UniProtKB/TrEMBL annotation:
Domain PAC: start-end pairs: 177-227
Organism: Ornithinibacillus xuwenensis
PROSITE patterns xref list: EAL (PS50883), GGDEF (PS50887), PAC (PS50113), PAS (PS50112)
Name of this protein: EAL domain-containing protein
NCBIfam families named among the record's database cross-references: GGDEF, sensory_box
Domain PAS: 129-178
UniProt xrefs under Pfam families: EAL, GGDEF, PAS_9
Length: 649
């Protein structure tokens, strides 16, 4: 057929070269031209003025720049066509037709959709406005039915009502992309599916063709990942990430509305001691119980989260300073009630720091940091209480952070020194030992006393590295004196609690002795009475291990703790050091205590040394009571290594 009014992009000769069925159609549906293959599929004669609408539902193709549909040939229920349509001009469309046999219909639908989606599909369903027309066995099995059972059912019966609303209006034929819905199985089980729909023309009636995939496992994994990102698994409370997100939004809202909000930083008192005594599993149960108690304070304007360990955060929106204090008091009162876990009634209290927006910070980070600072102050001074943030707290923390930085530099640059205080044997009036004492020689501030920096070193964990240096330096110096021919004496080193509870302590000390060449019998380690009694079984193992390599151990500050004679009799302790508080006062009670310690120690084959001896009267008393050794300013203050030679004579 020839049409002089429309210019074809291909002439008849070129058109005949194509093996695919090709038609050119005007916008009104009239057929302009086509090749032999197209005429054969449609069973038509080009010489007759025909319209494509006589063969296909052209309205589904009109208007679109490109279309790709499955369509049944009119007047033939056994012919399925794959139709690709391209609008080549305002007035003309090019149609490429591909015939599918009815026997291959289901397989070809799958191939067709797979080609478009480039993925492997789980099931195929063909459904009308209300009922399922056809499906494959995979789709039926996915929902727990046989193919025979599911055909004829309403699609709405298989989809959760809230999910079903997501489906596009039935008459809307545009491809909407992948939808995630909740399916309902035959037994009522809810699962997650992914559905991709395509319009399909079935004998002139528009139906839906959809591919369906079971994505339950993927959704559950995504939900788990999302849960882990925003919730604490142990307590089921929101975590730090979630709290930060909510707090940032709350700050912005409070700023817009000119409202106040408060951030609470809670820390459980004595949690570490409970953990160490009853174990980590018990500690986890305690944290869950505390979280459950905190959840009772959850309100519309209150958001509660677990930060980490035994620390929790609370956001109180639209509040005042007085209301924040009131909530803190309610929390403290609630936690004064015992928590029952197994057969135990646990009494744990909370220390709370509070920061208020906008006075104490205008962003989430500062509000949390300042609440933490306030909590830190109250926990150090007065547990089971609350503290509102003050600017002076921030200044003190800046000083602390500066000192921490300087401490690290001091260790790196060798600013630490050891001074040694002589220890004299009272029976032969001979110096038999030295106590190594740490000094910080700051390049600008001069000597800084240990009481100023040791607590900070303990808190930051720097005490481990500093303690390692003290041990190595004391052993090195003692070996150097011996190598110079001076009389061998014992050097004693104080161990912090963190040092003493290191798992590799004995191995570390052994390495230091090997490196310096010092005989172990000339090293004495001092631990406090409270450290020795904190965990009997572990302490006993460590003490026996130290004893096995020949290192002496003494108890420092004896008399200030709660020692049991039973422990003293089983621990391999070489010496007890009487705390100087018993010598500062001359009351008869103190003298009686000193006498008792001396006599008890001798009965257990332990030596006794008194520290802090400053007067002749104290020395005379100790000598008369047959105390073994003494140290103190009456003999000498702590001295640098180069000033101790006179004591070796």
């Amino acid at each position: 057929m020839k049409n002089d009014q429309v210019a074809l992009p291909l002439d008849n000769q070129l058109l005949s070269f194509f093996s695919e069925a090709i038609l050119f159609v005007k916008d009104d549906g009239s057929i302009i031209n086509g090749n032999h293959e197209a005429c054969s599929i449609l069973d038509m004669d080009l010489m007759n003025n025909k319209s494509i609408a006589d063969y296909l539902d052209f309205e589904l193709l009109r208007g679109a720049k490109e279309s790709h549909l499955l369509m049944e040939l009119k007047n033939s229920s056994h012919t399925l066509l794959e139709v690709k349509s391209l609008r080549v001009s305002e007035e003309m469309y090019c149609l490429v037709l591909h015939e599918l046999s009815i026997q291959d219909k289901a397989d070809e639908i799958k191939r067709y959709i797979n080609k478009l989606m480039n993925s492997t599909l789980e099931g195929i369903v063909l459904y009308g406005e209300s009922q399922i027309i056809d499906c494959d066995d995979t789709f039926a099995a996915m929902f727990g039915y046989t193919r025979k059972e599911i055909i004829g059912k309403a699609m709405e019966q298989l989809i959760d009502p809230k999910s079903f609303e997501k489906l596009a209006d039935f008459e809307h034929l545009a491809i909407e992309g992948v939808l995630e819905l909740r399916g309902i199985k035959k037994d009522g089980t809810i699962f997650h599916i992914e559905i991709l729909e395509y319009p399909y023309n079935d004998n002139g009636t528009v139906v839906r063709l959809a591919s369906v995939k079971d994505i339950t496992e993927r959704i559950e994994n995504e939900n788990k990942i999302e849960y882990m990102a925003y919730y604490d698994e142990l307590t089921d409370l929101p975590n730090r990430n979630f709290f930060n997100k909510v707090l940032k939004e709350a700050v912005q809202q409070a700023n817009n509305r000119e409202e106040s909000l408060a951030v609470f930083f809670l820390d459980l008192d004595y949690f570490k001691e409970i953990n160490d005594t009853l174990g980590y599993s018990f500690g986890d149960e305690l944290l869950k119980a505390c979280a459950k108690r905190l959840k009772t304070f959850q309100q519309m304007d209150t958001f509660i989260a677990r930060l980490s360990g035994d620390e929790f955060l609370i956001l109180q929106r639209n509040t005042s300073k007085d209301e924040a204090v009131q909530l803190a008091e309610y929390l403290i009162a609630e936690f004064e009630n015992p928590i029952k876990i197994n057969e135990y009634e646990i009494y744990t209290t909370v220390s709370i720091g509070i920061s208020v927006f906008p006075e104490n910070g205008t962003n989430a980070s500062d509000l949390i940091k300042h609440a933490d600072s306030a909590m830190y102050v109250i926990k150090e001074k007065h547990r089971n209480y609350y503290k509102l943030f003050e600017s002076s707290i921030s200044e003190n923390f800046k000083i602390m952070l500066t000192m921490e930085s300087e401490l690290r530099r001091a260790l790196k640059e060798g600013q630490f020194e050891l001074h040694y205080q002589p220890q004299k044997n009272l029976l032969n009036d001979e110096v038999v030992g030295l106590e190594a004492l740490l000094r910080w020689n700051h390049p600008e501030k001069g000597y800084i006393g240990p009481t100023e920096f040791i607590p900070l070193a303990e808190k930051t964990g720097l005490i481990i590295d500093i303690g390692d240096w003290v041990l190595a330096e004391a052993c090195r110096q003692n070996k150097e004196w011996q190598d110079k021919g001076y009389r061998p004496i014992t050097v004693s080193v104080n161990l912090s609690a963190k040092q003493f509870h290191q798992r590799n302590l004995v191995e570390k000390i052994g390495d230091i002795l090997d490196e310096t060449g010092l005989d172990p019998c000339y090293l004495e380690l001092e631990i406090t009475e409270s450290m020795a009694m904190s965990n009997e079984e572990v302490i006993l193992q460590t003490l026996h291990a130290l004893n096995s390599i020949g290192v002496l151990v003494s108890i420092d500050d004896f008399g200030t703790g709660y020692s049991s004679f039973k422990y003293l009799s089983t621990f391999p302790i070489a010496k007890l050091k009487i705390d100087k508080m018993f010598l500062n006062e001359q009351q008869k009670e103190n003298q009686a205590i000193v006498k008792s310690i001396i006599h008890m120690s001798h009965s257990l084959n332990m030596k006794v040394i008194a520290e802090g001896v400053e007067t002749m009267e104290q020395l005379t008393f100790l000598t008369n009571e047959r105390c073994d050794e003494m140290q103190g300013y009456f003999l000498s203050k702590p001295l640098p290594a180069n000033q101790l030679i006179k004591f070796f004579a």
